[in-house]
Amino acid sequence: MTNNNEKTGNTIGFHDTSDSDSNTNHTNQMLLRLKKRVQRLELLQQVSHELGSERDLNRLLDLILNRTNQVLDADRSTLYLIDDPSDAGPHLVSKIAQGMDGIRLPLDRTSIAGTAAMSGEICNVEDPYHDERFNAEVDQTSGYRTKSMLASPMTSPDGTVVGVVQVLNKLDGGPFDAEDEQLLLAFSTMAAIAVENARWLEAQKQTFEDLITGQAIAIDARDHVTGGHTWRVTAYAVEIGRTMGWSEQDLEILRYAGLLHDQGKLGISDDILLKPGRLSNWEFALMRSHAYKTKVILEGVKHLFPRRLRRAVDLAPAHHEKLDGSGYPDHLTADDIPMGARILAVADIFDALTAHRPYRSPMPDQDVIGLLRKDAEAGKLDSVPIEALASCMDRIVTIRDEINARIKARKRTFQVVQGVLP
Ligand SMILES: [Fe+2]
Predict the structure, then answer these.
(1) Which of 110, 116, 120, 202 is most buried, by CB atoms within 10 Å?
(2) What are the pLDDT digits (tens) for 271-305?
(3) 296 alpha carbon to ligand 1 midpoint, in Å?
(4) What are the sequence ranges of the domains in the chain?
């Protein structure tokens, strides 16, 4: 029996089956599109959140590329950064290139990625093989077939283009649309901010490192008699800490404390610091004041230390403290002397007695270990770092030889420069 609506084509009262199917399909498509948009927004929000918590640049960029593929339904992505080596001029260098080896492109309009970087605008190429800027050699080398391409500049908030994100091949086989363009631009901006932040953090880290090592060089340069003491004590302390199973972060704190431990010697006059013979009681007291001076100097610049490294400021001046309270500058006792300072104390004494001096021969390593153990038995030093030192002597000897060879070479360079040596 035929429905009246079918005869009359009435679509107001009752829908026929085909109209109903068509409407259902239309609604489903709308829902799918809406779902996709919500999914994209969620991913965008997720990446934005991940951006704030991931500090490693490579992991972050890798994450952004994976999410870009996911959200754009793309097969592959490449992330280029602008590299400016002084000899070859600016280039686009692939930081992460999925499925390909490193790619290097000149920063000009001869490539699609280069055009995006130069113009600061997104490039949507529906058929790359008919675009003269497309380099098919990359496909030939990798065995890949590029069918569609979207390249977006990575523009930082101050307007500087730092690189390009390029996505290849929409998974449904079609071209990338306007919505894809908007989304990739958003992702590229996030990547640009991530790069800028990571570079800024790296520059901060390097500045701090240069500042501290500069101080260590200045201390060592003051005192040619104990040349290399700062570097050896630092390296010994780190090796002892490593043997004791310390984390890399704690070793980093210990390293900075080592580099700064004798900072206060900058405030000791040459007459005392460089005196070859025995010091009088008064001179010895002045010499000992270097630990207090280290404390005062470091307290004054503590705010310049990144928070995670500030403990170095407490460790460095305490390297002459003794567990029984007989040390200096604060006569701290066991409960108040952190393990980092106890390690530095052992490393400091070990170097002082095993290093060459113009007025005496270096004491054999094992004899010094014996003296340190006696100090531990007397309740002055901690036996844990002493035993750690004793158990890694092979490595300590290698470290000492390396540092001494470096210092000898540097001294010779200075002497040649100053005309002391031919
Ligand atoms: Fe010292």
Answers:
(1) 116
(2) 888 887 788 999 999 999 999 999 999 999 999 99
(3) 14
(4) 17-200, 223-418
